[in-house]
Amino acid sequence: MVQKEKYVEHSPSKGEEAQQQVNPVESQPVTCKRSPLTRMSFKLFRRGSARCIGLLSAFVTILLCLYYISIGQPNPAPVSETGAPSAALRGSPLNAFTGFSVGGGSSAMSHQQKSHAAIVSNQKRSSETKAGQTTGSPESQSVEEYSNSDWGDKCYELLQSSTNITASEEHSKFDFQPEWMRSKEYWDRGFEERFEAQKKDKQRPPLKIIVVPHSHNDPGWLKTFTNYFQSDSRQILNLLVTKMQEYTDMTFIWSEISFLQLWWDQAHPTKQRALRRLIDSGRIEITTGGWVMTDEANVHIYPMLDQLIEGHQWLKNNLNVTPKVGWSIDPFGHGSTVPYLLSGANFEGAIIQRIHYAWKQWFARQQSGDFIWKPYWRGRTVAGKDSDTGSLLTHNMPFDIYSIKSSCGPHPFICLNFDFRKIPGEYTEYSVKAQFITDDNLEAKAQLLLEQYARTASLFPHNVALIPVGDDFRYNKDREVDQQYQNYKKLIDHIMANRRLYNADIRFGTPSDYFEAIKERMKAFPTFKGDFFVYSDIFSEGRPAYWSGYFTTRPFYKLLSSELEHQLRSAEIIFTLAYNTARQAKRENAIKIYEKNYELIINARRNLGLFQHHDAITGTSKAAVMRDYAMRLFESTQNMVKMQESCLELLLQKGQPRHHGFLLSEFERDNVNKLPRKMPIQMVSGDDSMPTVSGGEGGAGGTASVGAAASFVLYNSLAQKRLEVVTLRVQHPNVKVLNDKGVELSHIQINPVWNITDTYEQGLGTSVSGSVGRIRTSTRQFEVMFVAELEPLSLSTYRVQVDEVNFKRNIATIYCDDCTGAGPAAVSPPEEAEASPAPVFEARGKPAGDIQLENPHMRLLFDEKSGFLKTITRKNQKKELLKPLQCNIKFAAYRSAQFHSGAYLFKTDPEQSEAEKEVLEGYTDMRIIITSGPIASDVTVIYGPFLAHTVRIFNTRTHLDAAIYVENDIDFEPPPKNRETELFMRLVTNIDNIAQVPLQRDPLKEPADAATMPELPVFYSDQNGFQYHERIKVPAIGIEGNYFPITSGAFIQDTRLRLTLLTTHAQGAASYEPGQLEVMLDRRTLYDDYRGMGEGVVDSRLTRHKFWLLVEDLPGGQHDQLQPPSYKVLSQQAQQMANGLRYPPNLYFVSSLEQPELSAALLPLVRLLPKGALPCDVHLTNLRTLSDPELQLFPSASALLVLHRQGFDCSVSAGRDLSMEALCPLSSKGLGNVQLGRLRLHTIEATSLTGTEQKPSKDSFHIRSLAEISLEPMQMRTYNLTFRAEV
Q1: What are the Polar residues biased-composition ranges (predicted)?
Q2: Which residues are catalytic, by number?
């Protein structure tokens, strides 16, 4: 809990100190204070006598607290069966009857006890602590003080919001082969007749036209970001500020802050002032104001919001402006996350452009192109009405694209006459056709243009038309600005001079003017839920082209982005805590270092933000531009790892920090083109500062000398307790691992490192022909696997030591046919066979028949020939086998349709009789390796250099046992191999995921009887790691139109079971046949797909794809038909695992070679949430230091705390015996007593999502403590925390 501003800092009394020494398990017992409670009592009376019972319990709590302090004794800890104390009953006996049974197991339970006790069962946990809390609080207050009455139930069912339009329902009814396809224009006789009728309608408001000059600036596409700035964007901005002083009624809009920041930093102060004046007068409007115009399919919520914050903060600090209108005209399809974020940033409206041609026609026909876009889930009802949190007024541009040709009206051949750019040496369709406006043609041209504008406005009930005048990188020539302005000015002046005759009002304006005008004329707008994927255009060739290829294109770069996202988020949080810790402790040297290095964080934010651009993370820029993006991501990733090292070093040391440079990441990133490589930890013996190896140097597992040891730190950046299977590289197999309490972990596993899986050793075994050559285990490196229990937001120091006695029982057994050749020589290189002792790993021949892996929760069956998974058989609580679930894993590929499948588009080759090709048949060299050990068992299948596929299950007696880990290493090899290949991994199950109501959703025109009704599979795909959408197959379009983007996961379900697949990065997913779920892994298309990029995609690299697969039970019983349908989300376990996959714990080696006294100076465990975790469903999205408004390259004392209450489905679980309850007990009390490190807070303010404006929380901006924060399920909120300067 944050200290309230006027409270006195509390120092522990002697009684408390005694307690702390007596009871090491509990870190601090509860003590009480008077002032907050007396305040609370007045508040209680103000709220009415219903709170009297609460007040009574509060006083009883005080008395009992005082009693416990006076006797100075610890509360007795209830003992669980294993003898480990579980969390003691803190507070008072009152807890026994307050009706809560929440709390975490004891942090002192050793790993051994943990795995056997299945993490203390529910009955043993009667503690009243906050979710996951393991420490008492020095300022414990009554239950009411920290129970947030607005928080809602700990288990809830999310319902769908009620709207006029639901995307999936309308989409399934569309005609996807309309008659107007050939002409490419939907404007038919029906539209024309309606337009003529409207002209005669006296009631219809007069025509109003707002002309918006714009220039779409891509921060990288055919040229790099910097090249575009130098060749175009700088010139455009220079021309604007000079020409618009001359043309006093011209308006303009600008969106990409990445370009604006570069220009601003280099612009002369007079130009800066001119821009400020233009913005203040409203003539230049900043739209959206993100760092880039973000892609909406592949971008995760973290960088999507972060690039918006970066842009908005820059605008606030430099131009003192906050954008109010979204302008998203080029992303290839639109999702519902961006409108949610813009709504949270207090936007008034947003404009979208690229949606399916059938949607374009539908909105025009229905006159519904302006609508309120609502979240898919229903928020709290306020005064009988649904809350409008996250809703945004949205305008769909009615025509194909944002160029002048396609946006003045329904007829492009007429609109071409009104693009007045004529530059010597440029020959384009418009420069040939357009004629400048003269006195002779003025009237005719004005009439012609107005007819187009009026037709555009006829598609809306309000009769207002928004007309963009611009295109990519327009207004980059002095001459063009003059041509466009002067010609349009003549037309506008002529129409306004004859406005009675034309009955029209026309002027230059901005999107804000448009929203103002339509709100004046319309009081209510239709509501809409859903999204606009998959986008399809028709204007290019007069036939549908589905933009679903870019969901997967260039996975190597998509993975680089999620890697930087993880490292940046980890660095942001730890930097904020370390920097303010240094400030409060007056550590001048540390402060200087942090201030100097803060610029690296700014650059990392901007490099990550830049890559979220809709031609970057999509993989749709030229190969050289992609490499430029990759270098930026790679450099920032390295910088953020170094930043974490320096921050962790400060927080790990007791008292004054004296040591520097002693932490080292376990990963070596030495080349942007290669995967990061895990380094082995260096073990040193106590008396000698040199690493020691006894036995033959480098021989088969040369064992380490007695006494050698090393330490490493695990940094958990999530705000919940977590269990993670950690793997550590070591140089010797004879080791043991000790946790942060110095207790040896009873379960560890020593695995081999293979020359196949380690890309750096690959050269040793592979031959030129592409066969794998001999597989062997490394003799220089081994992998230690163990389960780490990590406190929420914590740094835990573990040790690895030599173990001469027990290490053999931890060594995994290997089964494979090719590595058992000639005894020991097969596992170690032949030339070393003489000197080396017996091999470390016993390699046995693969047993005949199908392969089986088993743990206490399930049994997996693999095909003996292919090595791929066949069935999953789960066990009930008595450990009896249930009915097997078919779950075949299959790898195959679609053949790309040449010129119609490329970086953007996806289409299977219509020439081929078989849409799919068996891509693995070309690799005859196939191996199967089985590894079995005390913690994990796995099956790895290797198909030449093309694919290494691993399926692993765990035996940890925790919730991890319910999940299956899948890892794929994919290498397409240099072209022309695997050309026109779109590789996917498909899960074929017997889950019956058929849509419930086929009658309403039957897209076939002719009436069908029940027997011929199509069985339409349905699956749920995540969007931006923020929400889930239901996807029902539309049979009228091919597989390309039924592929959807996922960022973190997808699931299919029937009435009994749910199968969830979680992933690390963006890719395409589909369920095209019942029971199937597939994800696309990589694509190679030799040919360009004619969407402007001008080249195919052939720069594939070796990529590593990681997944969790989870089978869970659904509750029985059908949903109540009267209620609105439920909104489907992940289970608690799936949500936690998705967070864990995206934000794994970071491992740092402690290199104590130069600093022998170092280990004494380090704290074994640093809890950065000392008073307990955040609730299970509250994700700490970010804790982001704000830049100083005056000195923008320096950090300020304020930070934005971004919280996301991730909704989850309580009723879905993998089994009660493996519940998350012990790790993260559910609570309905809100955030509770949250404290960040030992930091004192000065103020907490509720702000807009981007932190630019204060947002009232109930009745005031200022919040007295974090406990008062209230979040609805699914809601995301931002708070501005200002830290005190002194302790």
Answers
A1: 18-30, 120-148
A2: 330
